[in-house]
User: Fold this.
Amino acid sequence: MTSEPAHMNPARSFQGLILTLQRYWAEQGCVILQPYDMEMGAGTFHPATTLRALGPKPWRAAYVQPSRRPKDGRYGENPNRLQHYYQFQVILKPNPPNLQELYLGSLKAIGIDTALHDIRFVEDDWESPTLGAWGLGWECWCDGMEVSQFTYFQQVAGFECSPVAGELTYGLERLAMYLQGVESIYDLNFNGLDGDRKVTYAQVFQQAEQEYSRHNFEYADTEMLFRHFRDAEAACRKYLADGEPKDGANDQRHLMALPAYDQCIKASHMFNLLDARGVISVTERQSYILRVRELAKACGAAWLKTEGGGVAA
Amino acid sequence: MDAPAMPDLLLEIFSEEIPARMQRRAAEDLKKLVTDALVERGFLYEGAQGFATPRRLALTIAGLPVKGQDVREERKGPRVGSPDGAIQGFLKGAGLASIDQARIESDPKKGEFYVAVIEKPGRATQDVLAEILPGIVKNFPWPKSMRWGAASKEPGSLRWVRPLHSIVCTFGPETEDPEVVRFDVDGIASGDVTKGHRFLAPGEIRVKRFDDYAPALERAKVVLDADRRKDMILHDAKDLAFAQGLELVEDEGLLEEVAGLVEWPVVLMGSFDEAFLDIPPEVIRTTIRANQKCFVLRDPATGKLANRFLLTSNLIATDGGKTIVAGNERVVRARLSDAKFFWETDQRVKLEDRLEKLKSIVFHEKLGTQYQRVERIAALAKELAPIVGADPELAQRAARLAKADLVTEMVGEFPELQGLMGRYYATLQGEHASVAAAIEEHYKPLGPSDRVPTDPVSVAVALADKIDTLVGFWAIDEKPTGSKDPYALRRAALGVVRLVLDNQLRLPISEPLIYASAMHQFVSYLRARSSELQDIENIAQKMRSDQLDEVATKFAGGTKAIELEDAREFFGDKELGNDLLSFFADRLKVYLRDQGARHDLIDAVFALESQDDLLMIVRRVEALGRFLDTEDGRNLLAGYRRAANILRIEEKKDGRVYSEAPDLQIVNDQGQIEEKALAVVLDGAKREAAAAVEAEDFEGAMRALSRLRQPVDAFFDKVTVNADDAGLRANRLRLLNSIREATRTVADFSRIEG
Assistant:
C-alpha cells in the first residue's frame, strides 16, 4: 500500500472514499466510468449495468452514479435522507468465484478492519419491477449497519442473465458517515481538509436538497411531467422501431438500442417525479411501472441484437 | 469378536451465506433426500443427522453397510437344440458369453432346457452414494435458487441457494481412514477439505469423518449445531442481562434467525439514550428487532423496557467488541430517531383526517378500496352493537377509525404495528377508551390461542371486520379450498366463533351475514349500472346503514322507492348466507373438537334444523354430554336405540313410517299399564322438554327427558310391540316414534355413538 496524503484518507474525506474505491476496483480490471449524464433512481439504471448485464460478453465496470429519489427529499433537514445521493456501483460479468473476497478487500481498502468490525451477509433478494429485473444476494452489514447491496443478477429486462453478473452497490454517504464518525450527512468532510480549506457535504449539497425538495413536492410542473412521460415513452418506441434491422438485410443488428434506452430512463424519472408530487393514484401507479417495464424489456431485447449484446459485427 | 464397524458417511456442502430462514429446513431436506435415496436402494442405516450454519449444510449418516445385498437370479431359457437365433437371444439377455455357461435342466413337459444363473454382487455403498448425491445437489428443493459465475452461461447450469464452493464427502468405518466419495457436480469435485470461520479461521481444514469434522470446525470457530448456537446466545444474553440487573425479553423467532446469521455467536450489550423510552415500547422493540435483529431488555422490577439492547455478532473482535457495540449503537440511535420522528409527526394528523387516503388503497380488486371497506364495517358494527351490548355510536366510530393507522408513517414502516399504533394515536387524540381499545383489538383473535377481546365495542368491530371479509370473499367466490386459504378466511370464521362463544353472545349469525352481503351486493349492483367510478365513490360514502334506503331509492328503483327491508331482501344473498353458515358450522365443529367435545354430540346437535345460534349450539352440546354421563342418560339412550331399531325393522317390513301421534284412545282401551304410563309421561316430557328448550334451559330439557327412562324401560320389559292385533301394534309403533320425537327436541340421538 502506498501511503496516501491525510486528506485522501476515506476515514476523513468523502472524495477520498470515492477515489479509494475507484482505485481498488480499477485494480480488479474494472473500467472506471463517469456518472451517466441523466437523472436516474439508482446506479443499476446506468446502461453500463442494465444493458451490459445482458448478453454473453464479459464486462467489468465501476462508477459513481448520482441517484435521484424525489420522494426521499426532506428539505435538507433530515440527517439521513436525501433526494440526491451517490451510489458507487460495481458490476462484474461473469461474477468471479471470489467476489465476496474481492468485496471484503474493498472494505479493507477503505479502512474497515475485519478483526474489529462485524461484517455480515444478510439475505436480501433484489427486485426492480420497473427494470423487469431480479437477483439474489445480501445486504452487507458492518456492525449492524447496511453498507452495501450485493446481488447476483438472475434476470434483467425480462431476460435471463447468461452469464450471471455480480453487482455491488455502496451507499457512499452512509458509508462515509460511518467512517468519519458523524451523525449527519451534512457534517461529512467532503475534501478531507481542515480549517478554512475544509468543505462539508452541507456546503456542497444542502441548498440543493432544499430547492429540489420544494421542486419535487410542490412546484414540479405535473402537466409537463405527464407530457414528458408520454413523449419519452413514444420516443423510446419510435427509436426501437426505427433501429430494428430491416427484413432481408444482411446486417441483422439493432441500430439504436442505447438512444431508446435513454428514453426509458427518462420515463422512469418522470414517473418518480410525478409520484413524489402525489398525482399518481395507487391503481395508476402499477400501470405506470408496467409501462416503464415494457420499455425496459423492449430495450433489453434490442440490446441483445447489438454488438455489445453479443451479436457478431 | 465385535462385528466389523459399519461405515459412516460425512457430507458437507459449503457455500456463500444461506438465508437464515432457510437453514433448518434445508438441513432436514438434505437428510431426508439422502436417506430416502439409500433406503430406496436397499441400504439401511443406524442414524442420521443434518446440520446447517450460514455457510454450510452438513449430514452424517452412521452405520451404513459397506455394500448392498448380493442378488442371485435364475433365468429359464429355450429348449436344448433350439434354433441358433433363440439361443443367441437368450445368451444376450442373460449376459452369458457362451451356452456352456448355462446349466441344463429338465422337466417332464418341456424336456431339457437351458437355465442361466445370474449373480449380481451387491454394489459398493460408496459407488451408490457417488451416483445419487449429484442428483440430490442439482435438484435440491430451495425455496429460491440461483445461477452464478462463468458456468451460468450454459443453459441448465447448477442452481443453489447462493454460489456453492466445495463439497466434502467421505465414507468409511471408524477403524480406518475413510475414503473420499468421488463425484462431480457441474465442475465441483467432492473432496475432504472445508474451511473454518470466515474471519476467525479462514484456512482450509482437512477432515476425515464426522467425529473429527465437528471438533475441527469448533476449533475453527464454527458451531455446527444450530440448537447449540441458540443455547449459547440465550445463555450469554441472560448472563449479560443479569449482570446489569435486567431481564431479557425473550423472542424465539428472533433467536432462531440470529442463530442462522452467525457461525460463532458473541453476544454484546449496547445502550441508547433514555429519552427514546418515550416512544411506545412495542415500537422500540419492533424497530430494534426488525432492523437490527437485536434483543431488548426490561427492568424486572417495573417490567418497563430498559435503554439497553443485545446484539449477536459473529466475531471475537480484537478490541473486545467495543467498535462493534459503538457501530450498532449508532444504527440503533438513527433508527430510534426515525421512529421518534414518525411517532411525533403521526400525532399531528387526526385519525379521521386520514380516512381520505384510504380511498387510494385498494383492499382487493373486486372488493373496492379500504375506504369502502371501512364504511361497510362501520355500518355493520353499528348494526351489531346492540346485540353485543355496545353503544352503536362508539362501535361505528371505532370501526371508522380502525384502519386509519394503515396510512401513518409508523405503520408504513412497521406493518406489524397496525392496530396498536391506531390505539396509541386514538388515545392521544382523546377518543373514548373503548374506541381506542377497539382499534387495536378488532384484528383479534388472530388464531386459536390469541386473546379474545371482551370490551363490547371491540367485539362489535372485530365481528364486523371478520364478517365483512368473509362475506366479501364469498361473494367473489374466493373461498378457501383444501390447504389454500390466502385470505385467512378460516381464521376469520374461527375468530367469529370464538368472539361469540367467549363473550357468550346471543347472535343468530345469519342476520349479519345477510346484511353484510346486502352491502357487498349493493355495491356491485351499482357498479354494474354505473360506468363512472366517481359515482361508486359517492355511493360508498353513503353506505352507512341509515342511508341505505335513501341510496337504494335513488339508484336502484328510479322512481320507485325501496324501503330498507326491501333493499336487504333485494341485495342480500340468502344462499350465500347459508353457504357461509355451514362454513361457520365446520369451524365450530373443529373448534369444539379441539376443546375436547365429542364430535358425535356435535353432529347430533347440528343435525337439528336451522341452528345458527353458536352459543346455543354449544350449550346444547355441553348439556347433552353431561346428561349422557348420568345413568338416566345412558339408559334413555339405550331405550331410544331399542325403539329406533324396532321402528327401523318394522317400518321397513311394512313399507311405511309410523310418524303419526299415538291414538290415546287405543292406549287407554287396549293398552297395558306400562304403555299407558309411557304415553302419559311421553306427552308431558315432550312438552316440558320443548318448553325448556324454548327457554334455553337445556339442563331442564334433559331433566324432562330423563323422566322417560323408567317408563321406557318398563315398556320394553313388559310390553310386546308386535301384538297380534294390527291396530294395537301400529299404535305401539307410533308410541316408539314418540320416544324418538321427544329426544329430537334436544338432539338427534341417532348420531350419538358409543
